[in-house]
Write a structure and sequence with these properties.
The protein is α/β, with parallel strands linked by helices and 291 residues long. The chain has helices at 4-15, 23-30, 39-43, 60-70, 77-85, 120-125, 134-137, 166-175, 189-199, 210-223, 240-245, 258-263, 275-290; strands at 18-20, 32-38, 49-55, 95-101, 105-110, 113-118, 142-148, 151-159, 180-184, 203-205, 229-234, 248-252, 266-268. Bound molecules: adenosine-5'-diphosphate and magnesium ion (MG). Its main location: membrane.
């Protein structure tokens, strides 16, 4: 039977914005030794701003226009940002055959023409050579390439910012006894490195496909010692498989996908990563009282 103190622990956590879905998760939360974060929407705001547009033999507006249409149905934060950069929806563009490729980008037919929007990996898979200018390599943002048919059409540089409480979140986890903090991202190496440095994370791994993220979590699970648990924190967009694989899946409640909120063991109602340490502290206190 579950001691009554567990119910008051769950109640206390929920008043602080941490929804714990069961007494067993409170125990797992008290023993977290490794915290693995997804980057976009978890440690960063997930609201990208367009910082540069580099069209290649196409009009700049036309490039933004194509990207926005290809991203019409995607709920990835990048898609939302590209749509915001070109809000002119009512222009009678015909978009069909939309196919989203997790960790890569999106393919669609726009007015009968094949258009691909995504990262360098996606372009490489299509045999399309991308731009390699200094700005692309600077790491100042996430570079999204566009191809029309098998012709390169340029790229859009977008940039995200770390959440206001992300550095605090990492510091608090250390204070709460977490041994290792890790970030996994499908974004470029330079972008991952900059965020990891800024936040003081112990480890980061970039340019990962959803399956690579699972492999990294499995490696970290195998490296755990004693009764430690591994928590994975994400927004559910391209990271639902890792959320499921971790001992404890933690989802963002406000901006996260419905599927992630449903599949997660713990939900952070206000999307603040610093609430993970709050949850750990409540869980530890509850277990001390219960014993
Ligand atoms: P993260 O690990 O940072 O949360 P994802 O795994 O969701 O990122 O995506 C990894 C990369 O795949 C993105 O940085 C982007 O290059 C590309 N990508 C994913 N979805 C899209 C999309 N809808 N449009 C364009 N690019 C995308
Ligand atoms: Mg993600």
């Amino acid at each position: 039977s579950v001691p009554l103190t567990f119910f008051s622990g769950i109640g206390g956590a929920s008043r602080l914005g941490v929804l714990v879905k069961g007494a067993n998760y409170l125990e797992a939360l008290a023993r977290v030794g490794i915290v693995v974060f997804d980057k976009t929407g978890t440690l960063t705001k997930g609201t990208f701003e367009v910082t540069a547009v580099h069209p290649d033999k196409i009009d700049e507006r036309q490039l933004l226009h194509l990207a926005a249409h290809v991203e019409r149905y995607s709920n990835h934060p990048i898609a939302l940002s590209l749509r915001n950069a070109y809000p002119d929806e009512a222009d009678g563009c015909k978009v069909d055959d939309v196919q989203e490729m997790p960790g890569l980008g999106v393919h669609a037919m726009v007015n009968g023409e094949t258009v691909n929007v995504g990262n360098e990996k996606l372009m490489a898979s299509l045999g399309i050579e991308v731009c390699h200018c200094d700005k692309c390599k600077s790491g100042a943002g996430t570079v999204i390439h566009v191809a029309i048919g098998n012709r390169y059409a340029g790229h859009i540089v977008i940039s995200d910012r770390v959440k206001d409480d992300a550095a605090l979140a990492v510091a608090r986890l250390k204070q709460a006894g977490v041994k290792k903090t890790v970030m996994l991202t499908g974004d470029y190496e330079q972008v991952g490195a900059a965020v990891a440095r800024q936040l003081g994370l112990d480890e980061y791994h970039a340019q990962l496909m959803p399956a690579d993220k699972v492999a990294q979590v499995e490696r970290l699970l195998a490296s755990k010692t004693g009764h430690d648990t591994l928590a994975m924190v994400g927004d559910g967009i391209n990271d639902a498989p890792v959320l499921a694989r971790a001992d404890l899946g933690i989802a963002m409640g406000a901006m996260g996908s419905d599927a992630a909120i449903e599949a997660a063991d713990v939900v952070l109602m206000d999307d603040k990563p610093s609430k993970i340490a709050v949850g750990i502290q409540v869980a530890k206190r509850t277990l001390r009282i219960a014993r």
